Structures are given as structure tokens and as C-alpha cells.
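Lab channel / #folding
Pinned by the channel admin:
"Please post every new chain as: sequence first, then the C-alpha cells as a reply. Keep commentary short and put observations after the output so the thread stays searchable."

First post following the new format, from NK:
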Amino acid sequence: MYQLRQFAIFNSLQIFCFLLSCQRMSMHPSPVQFVPPQSLKPHPSALLLPMSPEDEHALHEDIATHGILHPLDITQTNHILDGVHRWQTAQALALDRIPAQVFTYHDPQAEMLHAIRANLKRRHLSSSQKAMLALEVEKILAPEAKKRQGARNDITQKFEESQQGEAAEQAARVTGSNRQYVYDAKKIVALAPDLKAPVVQGLVTLPQAKLLATHSQPERMAILTSIAAGDTHARSLLRDDPVSHAADYRHSSESTEWYTPQVYIAAVSELMEAIDLDPASTAVANQVVKATVYYDKTTNGLKFSWPGRVFLNPPYGQENGASNQGVWAHRLIEQFTKGITSEAVLLVNAVTERSWFQPLWDFPICFTNHRIAFYNDKLTPPAPTHGNAFVYFGTQEQRFIAIFSRFGTVVKRVSPAR
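Reply from TO:
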């Protein structure tokens, strides 16, 4: 154990010396020279952090008025380490020459660290962005730590683990993040790699990414698309409670309640503007659904009328030999036909062969292009066994198509019913 601690300290010092040497090498660039923009190309590590549209516009206006006042940092092979956005603006403005200074490195890792450090200095990054960026720095430092270990055969696997830990620690220091945040970022990327870019771009934070990681990939894309479009309601969904609506899964082996991901409740609210009634819910579920009136298992929504705008995710399983989904779907059709329910969205399994499903073809149906992963109070998604269908009752068919097409394909019966 003493040997392990000695090696861990020694390895940490070596990584620090490597970072220090990179920093020293970057202190003596070449004199500024003016080069044609078309002769340059971005270094991959300089492309990790995009610039916001607002900053891009401000940079364009500044360069158009004053020119490029700060030279670009480039390598001997004309790769841009710092100044990619100035270079892109120069091309857009058709500038003939732009100022640049050459930094000479004999180690590709040093070039990568230069590019990342420059991004860190020029951007006002959140702690979430820094943590994600630290993963890139860790990739650079980990091989260096292993190389400096040498060919010591007496080093056990625990030493390798200590190397990884020290590389993560140094990466956190380089980026101004903290080790725990870096570990969280690593877990998120391992679980949902598609969330790395949204965090780096500042679209969502690490805590929000944690919640998104519990959704299926299509659900994540739907939420992120809405957030990118400026939907503040979609962003508000990424809070500590990642689930929204209860359903009694009587066919499940566990006696627990299950919930529909919030993204679908958000779409229902966007379509109908409000939910007047949820006839199959719970008190906990209604904290998110926010129906004006709801009925739970005790009150039994089948005993009451369903006026206004209704969202219904009926209980599953069977009751007295009859499908619960069929019973509740039939009741919704009846209430809508009588004019009691003015508008509704029904969420059921896409079991088109079942007799109770046949009347639903008279209404617009969105068949999801994925299986919805419902959640329990432990945030553990079950293995979905069916696809899903959203059925719309109301006069806003085009609006339903526009909103729910993000989840799949919307269809409606064109042939006569048999």
C-alpha cells in the first residue's frame, strides 16, 4: 500500500510536470505573420466549443469594423489552435490576409492542450461544460501517465486505476472543474453518448443531462429539439422529478405504479393548452400533469362524467376478463361522441389486432417510432413489450400532427370501417 501511495504521488507530479512543460513551450511563439485564410485549417481540439449565435454576430460586426486585432495561434502545419471563429469570419468577409503566430510543439498532446486551454480562456463556460471538456483533457493525460510509468512489471492493476484517477484529477484542475463533476460527466457519456454535445454546447447542464439519460434516445431528441427551439416549458421539465403520470400495470410482476415520461405530458399540454381532467391518475402524478380535476383508483373515474379537455393513460391488465385499456378507451369515445369531452389525448399500447382498438381508427393516431420506457419511483425503466399510440379526439388535427410527429407517424383511416 505504501508503494502504491508513493507511485500515485510520483505519477501525479509527472503529469503536473508534463502540463508545466506544455505551458512553457507555449510562451515563445513566432513573430506575427499575415497568412491567407485558405491556407489554414482548424485543429480538431479547437472545435470542441461552438460559439453562440449572439457572440458570432458580435464577432462578425467587430471584425468587419476593426479587422482581426488578435493574431490566431497556429501550428507549423497551419492547424488553428486558437481563433477558429475569427478565421471563419475572415472567410465570410473575404479577407485576403489575417494575422497569425506559430507555436512549435513536438508533442501532439501539447497541441491539444493548447487548443483546449485557449477555449477555456475565451469562453464563459459553465461548470457542466468544463466537466465535459475535462473528459477530453483526461484522454490526453492518461496516455502520458501510462508512458511515464515505463515498463515496470511490478505495478499492479491498482496502479493503473490510480493513474486514471490522477489523470481525472489533473483534467479537472486544467479545466477549472471538480473531480466529482468530471466523474458525473463520464457516467452520463457512458450511459448516453448523445448527451455529450448538448452539454458542451451549453444546451443543458449535467444535472439535466442526468435526467435526460433516463429517457429513451428518441425521447431525449424530442426534448432537446424543443429546448433548442427556445421552448422554456420543455426545459422546465428537466427538474428533479423526471416522471409525470401514473398507470396501474396489473400485468407487471411488481406491485408498483409506473409513470409516463414528462415529454409526452408536455406535448399534450402544448396541444390542448390545459388539461381539465385526468380520470386515471394519482395525487403524485397530478403534481406534474396539473389537471384541474383528477380521479384515482379509489374514486374510480369510470363513475363520473369526463367534461372538457382530457388526458387518459388508462390502467393496463384486465378486469373481470375485459381489457382495462378497452374499457377506458370505449368510455372516452362515448364521452367525446356525446359532446361531454371536448378534446382528448389517449395513450394506449399499439395493439392494432385487438377488437377494442378498432374504433380508434376513426381518429388521428400517432404511432411512436419507439417503445415508451415508463418509470417507477426508482427510475428503473421496465423492458417495453409493445409499441405505443397516441389517439387524438378534437378539432385541432393539424396541430396534433405538427406536435406529435416528433414522436412518430400520424395516420388516420381512409378506407371504410368493416
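NK: The two ends are 78 Å apart (CA to CA).
TO: also worth noting, Residues 2-25 form the longest helix (24 residues).
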